[in-house]
Design a protein that fits this description.
Protein-Tyrosine Phosphatase, Chain A; about 425 residues; alpha/beta; UDP-N-acetylmuramoyl-L-alanine:D-glutamate ligase; globular; about 40% helix
Length: about 425
């Protein structure tokens, strides 16, 4: 298949909708020869932080000399963005070659797999073909019925945290959502929980005991955030007396680093050779996009893929940390299934003016509805149905008032936003 043919096939698969369950992916991976069980895997679930966690862990493991495959979603640029080897996006030719193997098997199935199931199978096949030592695999949504959850015995199952999100699919309480995420725990395999919600912890602990899986938690007193030294270039963590610089910013990156460093200890106990130097080098060199990412310094433009109340709260904390009591120009576009009415209260103290847009996604919230939610709280807001127009207006406002432009919203909007900046 050519790369363009793979994209056409994925578009066809997307018409099958999104259906949770493992029946189709189990059949497809069986037809492929179960590649998911031929590479050692770190399996990651959680409400927020999965992408940054995976990027940090991959960078450290690569610095330690391992060949590391990575699978994350959504793809923020091209479809190949979901597939990485040692942190680098795979080529279109690599993707087409893997899909050439996967697609005929999909078409031979009576109950044909969904788009995400096709991509998941392609990821496992890719890591096997590329002779990866380790794969770092991120759940798409939930855990128990997520298509990535066909791994028999991961090195460690990681649940970064549990917060309210995707309630229409996963439940209305933290306990219900935690139960879905705990579904990635496997018999006798260690599990790490990095969250701080007691209800979620009780649920995860119950599942771990049921599966005979040793549960690990962060030893938080081992970690200190060196807040005075944190900049828009890195996050500085003191870990057992050693200062480490993680080349990602955002207030939430401290918690992500705590989780990564804690999981490194688990991996060491499982026989992986990861030196302290590899940890320092890996954190210093990590790259990830769409997470409080500085896209331009003059004028200052930052994009953060905050997409739910917990994420928006972290974004507000980050704005407060880096800009003190100063105001910012906000551009925001979100999905309609999020609690967007909460965002004005969370961000209001920092907003000079809000510019609302509608991302190119069928689940997107109308820009006028989002703007109205800000105006109801006394915040000046303009809405733009066309994202390019909103970006231009927000950028003009930021330049005129010499203020930072902060773009928040779904990671699905990242490509549109950066393309709009390029056009301007």
């Amino acid at each position: 298949m050519t790369f363009e043919e793979t994209k056409l096939y994925l578009k066809k698969a997307s018409l099958r909708g999104s259906r949770l369950g493992l029946e189709r992916i189990e059949k497809l991976t069986q037809l492929l020869g179960s590649p998911q069980d031929k590479v050692k895997t770190v399996h990651i679930s959680g409400t927020n932080g999965k992408g940054s966690f995976g990027a940090m862990l991959t960078s450290i493991l690569a610095a330690a000399g391992y060949k590391v495959g990575g699978f994350s979603s959504p793809a923020i640029t091209e479809v190949t963005d979901s597939f990485r080897i040692n942190g680098s996006e795979i080529s279109k030719a690599q993707f087409a070659a893997v899909m050439d193997r996967v697609v005929p098997l999909c078409e031979a199935m009576e109950d044909k797999p969904t788009e995400f199931e096709v991509l998941t199978a392609a990821a496992y096949e890719l890591f096997f073909r590329e002779n990866c030592d380790i794969a770092v695999v991120e759940c798409g949504m939930g855990g128990d019925t997520d298509s990535t959850n066909v791994i028999s015995a991961p090195l460690v199952s990681v649940i970064t945290n549990v917060q309210l999100d995707h309630c229409g699919f996963l439940g209305d309480t933290v306990a219900e959502i935690a139960a879905h995420k705990a579904g990635i725990i496997k018999q006798g395999c260690p599990v790490y929980f990095g969250g701080n919600d007691p209800e979620a912890l009780r649920t995860v602990r119950t599942y771990a005991e049921k599966m005979g899986a040793k549960l690990y938690l962060p030893v938080r007193e081992d970690f200190t955030l060196e807040e005075a030294e944190c900049t828009l270039a890195d996050t500085v963590i003191n870990y057992k007396g050693t200062k480490l610089h993680a080349a990602l910013c955002g207030s939430y990156q401290f918690d992500n680093a705590v989780n990564v460093l804690s999981v490194i200890e688990i991996l060491r106990s499982r026989g992986l050779h990861i030196s302290d130097e590899a940890v320092a080098v890996g954190l210093k060199n990590v790259r990830w996009h769409g997470r409080f990412e500085v896209l331009c310094k003059d004028p200052l433009i930052i994009y953060d893929g905050s997409h739910n109340p917990a994420g928006i709260a972290c974004a507000a904390e980050s704005i407060g940390r880096y800009f003190g009591g100063g105001k910012v120009v906000l551009l925001i576009g979100v999905m309609a299934d999020k609690d967007y009415h909460l965002y004005a209260d969370m961000l209001g103290g920092y907003i000079h003016k809000a510019f609302t847009v509608k991302p190119d996604n069928p689940r997107s919230l109308d820009s006028d509805t989002l703007a109205a939610a800000f105006r109801e709280k006394g915040i000046a807001a303009e809405n733009f149905p066309v994202l390019d127009d909103g970006v231009r207006a927000a950028l003009d406002e930021a330049k005129k008032n010499r203020l930072p432009l902060i773009a928040l919203g779904s990671l699905y909007m990242y490509r549109e936003f950066t393309a709009a900046l390029g056009n301007i």
